[in-house]
């Protein structure tokens, strides 16, 4: 059973990690991206698909006056035309329009000034006749008839009769210009005080101006005791300061008579109505909004007319599929996917060129998207008060995805996926900015920390780190939204604390942080087994020398085993100095020569241990070359059966690249005549390749040749090692073996110095230790001498 399972998983791994043309991988990615786009759009568009219609008919369960049998909550945010609100705004706009009045300045000249001149002239005639008494004045001047004798006497006693007319005229002019005196009483006096008045002057250049409503005075208010009379009396005293009180009273009373007799203002009802109609018609149709997740009516509440109206609007708008919103979400997701795709193609072009990596990323992303769907159902459920305490982003396992991708791949890829996911959380949270910041911040932090997961204890640290970050962002959100952290109810500190929002959000942050870290620990072995990815923990397992393949190498090809560990030491030091994955390099070297196991004795390092003629006979260069080439092909096949990761298997062919087996090729050319040499195909003496596709495999290529060549050195010195390293590097460069590895000239210098450091420490000259017999002889000779 185990053999069948291993064979099946080998086939699955080979299928998933098989190197495919880039065009095929791009087509697969296109299908996966399309599925993701549709899935995400569906999840985010659920609130816009509408909801079940509420029966508000007269006999329905939610008709006006009945008790609501269940809580009704709007599934999405929508606006509707609010007729009542529109009418209120129109009425408000109309009420704010000033009342229109016409003021005729011709009355001031034709009426007031003319009559005042006539009356003052009569007064002078009476005085000239020597008949100046209050009774005669009141009899001869009818317009002054209602004045008291005291007031007439004050006028008669005033010696400057030439200024009398000026006093009265100045006072009337002042009232005329400042106030709007109307003939009739105004039934809209209170509204006039609020809206004010628009005065249109007739007979002057200043056509229109605005005044406060309290400056429009019906003439009936002039003589009544009250605020109007007090204001007019005060006005007279301010403008005629040098006049006695008795004369001031007489002048103001006579002046008010002329004003009363000739009111200059008249209410223009037509102009007022037209202005109000224009203001009312300028008001656009008002819309009201029902928020997403808003409770329209709770179970047990009475259906009021206002509630019924909202339910009717919800039936009209919320039960429709909002096509515009769905298209908007779809287009936004397309833009985000293009941004992420461009970023990955630009900065990580080789990262997603195999099926397994794409499946890992998209499968994990689908898990998180599915969790967003399920969590939104719970978080925004009817009667749920979660949104009053928590933020939606606190429940989504963004940290799990980014920790996993950051650990398995790199932080750039993980941040790009986290960026896309943060916007998905933003849309799903009904555009809550704190949820977006939670998702994005957790994505960045977990992506960066994912590359630092070296030990099991680091998962615990990751849980604390994600918890701390979420607490910070949630606290910022609470401060921004003005939410309460802690409210004292008098029930005791411990009870108040456990019931507080502060306690709830802290616990939720801990749950999310540690759940994400724990989920990564659960998914990692599963992904390692199914997709055969070389995580750090997988590489540590493969680095164990107890692995069956390494034990076979030790038993059947012991010198190759020793060679392997020397190459590993060289390669790992160079990788470390170049900040590469030194653990990957070490494990890759451990398995790079496992193909020599079937024919171990054929290879020169093992011939002294397996001295068979067929192993030593190399008189057939073509056959020998084929045997050497076969060790690469055999190694790949053995590695696949052992389910080694593709990244480890790549060390087997790439450490030889397409280099030529110079010894056998030269021997083949040497053994035949010059005319027959053209029949020899050089490709038969070249390794199948490919050339090193990474810096790691290129380092191993150089180290493998160097370790073998270093055994032939007669003298080990910095100079000889430097010369040997340069010779080998130049030979690889001459065959263009490093062209596709990405190594730079600077990298090669670091590699040379790293190799020289390791070789000097391992190939140093040791002193010759004396033989035990010689030491014993010296001891015996010394003891004999002492006896003498």
Automatic annotation (TrEMBL):
Listed Gene3D superfamilies: Hypothetical protein af1432
Keywords: Membrane, Transmembrane, Transmembrane helix
Transmembrane segments: 30-49, 323-345, 357-376, 388-408, 413-429, 435-450, 462-480, 502-527
Residues of the HD domain: 560-709
Annotated region described as Disordered, given as residue ranges: 764-788
InterPro entries listed in its UniProt record: HD/PDEase_dom, HD_domain, HDIG_dom, Metal-dep_PHydrolase_7TM_extra, Metal-dep_PHydrolase_7TM_intra, PgpH_phosphodiesterase
Protein name: HDIG domain-containing protein
Annotated source species: Leptospira brenneri
């Amino acid at each position: 059973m185990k053999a069948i399972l291993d064979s099946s998983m080998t086939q699955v791994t080979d299928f998933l990690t098989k190197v495919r043309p880039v065009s095929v991988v791009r087509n697969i990615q296109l299908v996966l991206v399309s599925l993701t786009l549709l899935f995400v759009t569906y999840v985010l568009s659920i609130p816009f698909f509408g909801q079940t219609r509420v029966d508000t008919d007269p006999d329905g369960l939610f008709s006006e006056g009945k008790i609501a049998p269940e809580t009704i909550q709007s599934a999405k945010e929508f606006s509707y035309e609010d007729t009542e609100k529109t009418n209120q705004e129109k009425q408000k706009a109309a009420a704010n329009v000033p009342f229109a009045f016409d003021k005729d300045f011709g009355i001031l000249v034709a009426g007031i000034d003319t009559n005042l001149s006539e009356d003052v002239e009569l007064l002078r005639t009476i005085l000239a006749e020597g008949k100046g008494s209050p009774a005669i004045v009141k009899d001869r001047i009818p317009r002054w008839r209602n004045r008291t004798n005291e007031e007439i006497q004050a006028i008669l006693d005033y010696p400057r009769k030439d200024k009398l007319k000026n006093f009265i005229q100045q006072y009337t002019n002042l009232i005329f210009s400042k106030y709007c005196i109307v003939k009739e009483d105004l039934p809209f006096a209170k509204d006039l005080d609020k809206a004010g008045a628009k005065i249109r002057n007739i007979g002057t250049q200043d056509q229109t101006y605005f005044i406060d409503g309290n400056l429009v005075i019906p003439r009936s208010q002039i003589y009544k005791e009250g605020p109007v009379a007090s204001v007019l009396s005060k006005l007279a005293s301010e403008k005629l300061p040098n006049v006695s009180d008795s004369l001031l009273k007489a002048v103001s009373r006579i002046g008010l008579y002329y004003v009363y007799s000739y009111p200059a203002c008249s209410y223009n009802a037509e102009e007022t109505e037209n202005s109000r109609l224009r203001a009312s018609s300028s008001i656009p149709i008002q819309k009201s909004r029902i928020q997403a997740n808003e409770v329209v009516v709770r179970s047990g509440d009475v259906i009021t007319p206002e509630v019924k109206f909202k339910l009717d609007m919800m039936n009209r708008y919320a039960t429709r599929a909002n096509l515009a919103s769905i298209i908007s979400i779809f287009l936004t997701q397309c833009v985000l996917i293009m941004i992420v795709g461009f970023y990955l193609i630009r900065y990580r072009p080789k990262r997603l060129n195999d099926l397994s990596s794409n499946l890992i990323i998209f499968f994990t992303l689908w898990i998180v998207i599915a969790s967003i769907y399920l969590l939104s159902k719970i978080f925004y459920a009817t009667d749920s008060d979660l949104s009053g305490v928590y933020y939606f982003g606190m429940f989504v396992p963004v940290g799990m995805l980014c920790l996993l991708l950051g650990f398995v791949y790199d932080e750039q890829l993980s941040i790009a996926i986290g960026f896309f996911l943060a916007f998905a959380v933003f849309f799903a949270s009904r555009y809550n900015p704190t949820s977006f910041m939670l998702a994005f911040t957790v994505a960045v932090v977990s992506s960066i920390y994912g590359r630092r997961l070296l030990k099991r204890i680091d998962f615990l640290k990751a849980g604390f780190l994600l918890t701390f970050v979420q607490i910070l962002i949630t606290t910022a959100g609470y401060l921004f939204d003005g939410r309460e952290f802690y409210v004292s109810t008098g029930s005791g500190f411990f009870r108040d604390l456990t019931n507080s929002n502060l306690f709830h959000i802290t616990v939720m942050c801990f749950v999310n942080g540690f759940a994400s870290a724990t989920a990564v620990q659960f998914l990692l072995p599963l992904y390692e087994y199914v997709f055969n990815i070389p995580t750090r923990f997988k590489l540590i397992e493969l680095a164990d020398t107890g692995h069956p393949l390494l034990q076979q190498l030790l038993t059947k090809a012991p010198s190759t085993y020793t060679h392997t560990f020397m190459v590993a030491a060289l390669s790992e030091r160079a990788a470390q100095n170049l900040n590469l994955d030194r653990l990957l390099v070490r494990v890759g070297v451990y398995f790079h020569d496992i193909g020599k196991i079937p024919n171990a004795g054929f290879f020169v390092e093992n011939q002294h241990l397996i001295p068979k003629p067929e192993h030593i006979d190399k008189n057939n260069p073509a056959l020998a070359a084929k045997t050497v080439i076969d060790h690469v092909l055999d190694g790949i096949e053995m590695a696949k059966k052992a389910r080694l990761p593709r990244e480890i298997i790549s060390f087997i062919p790439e450490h030889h690249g397409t280099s030529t087996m110079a010894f056998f090729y030269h021997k083949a050319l040497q053994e035949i005549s010059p005319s027959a040499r053209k029949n020899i195909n050089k490709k038969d003496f070249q390794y199948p390749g490919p050339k090193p596709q990474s810096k790691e495999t290129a380092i191993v290529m150089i180290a493998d040749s160097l370790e073998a060549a270093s055994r032939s050195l007669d003298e080990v010195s910095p100079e000889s090692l430097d010369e040997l390293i340069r010779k080998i590097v130049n030979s690889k460069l001459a065959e263009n073996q490093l062209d596709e590895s990405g190594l730079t000239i600077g990298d090669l210098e670091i590699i040379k110095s790293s190799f020289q450091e390791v070789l000097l420490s391992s190939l140093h000259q040791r002193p010759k230790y004396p033989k035990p017999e010689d030491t014993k002889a010296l001891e015996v000779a010394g003891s004999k001498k002492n006896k003498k």
